[in-house]
Request: fold
Amino acid sequence: MARKLLLEHDSVPGIETFEVYKKHGGYLSVEKALKKMSPQEVVEEVQKSGLRGRGGAGFPTGMKWSFLAKPEGVPRYLLCNADESEPGTFKDRYLMEKLPHLLIEGMIVSSYALGANLSYIYIRGEYMWILDILEKAIDEAYAKGYLGKNILGSGFDLDLRVAPGGGAYICGEETALIESLEGKRGNPRMKPPFPAVKGLWGCPTVVNNVETLMAVVPIINEGGDEYAKIGIGKSTGTKLISAGGNLARPGVYELEMGLSVEEFIYGDDWCRGIANGKKLKACVPGGSSVPILPAHLVTKTAAGETRLMTYESLADGGFASGSMLGSGGFIIFDEDQCIVRNTWNFARFYAHESCGQCSPCREGTGWMEKVLNRLEHGQGNLRDIELLEEINKKIEGNTICPLGDAAAWPVAAAIRHFREEFEWHVSHREESQTRNYGLLKESLVG
Amino acid sequence: MSSTHVDLSKRHAETPCFSPEKLAEAQKLMSLYPEGKHKSALIRILHMAEEEFGGWLSIETMDYVAGIVNIEPIEVYEVASFYTMFNLDPVGNYVFEVCRTGPCMLVGSDNLISYIENKLDIKVGETTKDGMFTLKTAECLGACGYAPMLQCGKKYHEHLTNEKVDELIAAYRSGELPK
Reply:
């Protein structure tokens, strides 16, 4: 159950250097793709693999690639989205720190497939030390002839550069990323036109997550069909999970899609249960934007089936009783945590990170933060809970980019599953300031 | 330039100027983009300028960068004011940015922030009287599994406890930069 495709060699000393990486099978996919395959054949392997975007949306990568416009004489660009900022997510950081050459390898093959001769890695500004790691690795790759002109004598040219952001969550949205890469404020663009038609500097552009581009390497090495054999249904391959919160052993894990959520939380090979022997209260399985699940819906679906680490199983039950795999930012809450406080914390995050372009998001996120702040601090009333639901509906679906939805969903889900706890903050204003609601109501933990 | 919205007490006494080496580095960064697209290097050059000129971006610094990148000053202001990593006010020698978002909060970032406030005798957003430390909070820094944590410059300090914070502050004060 613990087959690793990306993290197979992450603990090998010196794996961040070209020499060691190459010795452990690195850059084979470049040789194979550039020498033996046409760009279209690379695209087809990725389509066969069933690989879905690992940044959060889960859109099929091969399909995204097939949308890329190819007008004569116009350059195309591949951009790597390394702006990892979804609360709860820290896998791309680990991948790039340990395996910079795997990203470079994935980008060479993917750029070849897309016909891009200049590609960029856009990395969040706070990861500046990783930018140094990447640039060092890129210099090595140039020196060894894997980047630059006529790579391995194939006739294919590729320049690869790294560009930092400046601390803006919104730049993980692909059109905001493009704006930022052009040296501007990270305001998302209206779509259409989609980046596949008009992206960086008005040219056709593909934006893929770090983990997605790395996954292209085993897909080319082993074949798309082999890759698709791992996992269940439309959740193929392995997925990196960033596990945090109140876990006995938080960290970055690579799992084959289809592992049960229960095994992942409690298994000895995985997170080894809740920290300090406490009980599970709730879980946000895919980064702060996805709906929170109360304990009784974490390991089982509403229908009583075993919940699995797949796109489909985590979403089983829709928003009524399910959530999403999202970015794989897996956050665990123990019995002592306050759901109202956490909801307020997340709302503050989105209010802080809204770019301010669309009024429903700019005003709505700030408003929700204020209302949740007063509920958390014993100043709220029952009408506030309804008010939150009303604001939610006015944001969702009414903004240029998905940040509005991402801000609305966690609040809606918290009220849906933990309404009693919100009401308790109103009926027990003073008590709520000195202790947490905890697991007072057994019905909440199932 | 109209100065009605500018706090004139926050200025650099002299016009900032990169060393020839730094200037060459900035030119090289601009050359990483196709012809005419060198504005793309702006964010990275602003990071450089902040590091070179006291950890913050004054109007003078931003105007200087505008000259180097050959764009209007307003194009620099609008970028500098959008990205939260850029300090538009003077800061101490070391800026502690403590992550306060969900996963860090679950394992004690609120207590950590209070502890640092007491220890340094400042509130979030303030700088110690000796100009050594500025305390800020940050939204998710991507260290959720190693929380609570703070960033200082390029360095992430993780799995923090009160004792580790004491050691950290002592190390920065003594000039021995923590590994």
Remarks:
- The first strand of chain B starts at residue 94 and ends at 99.
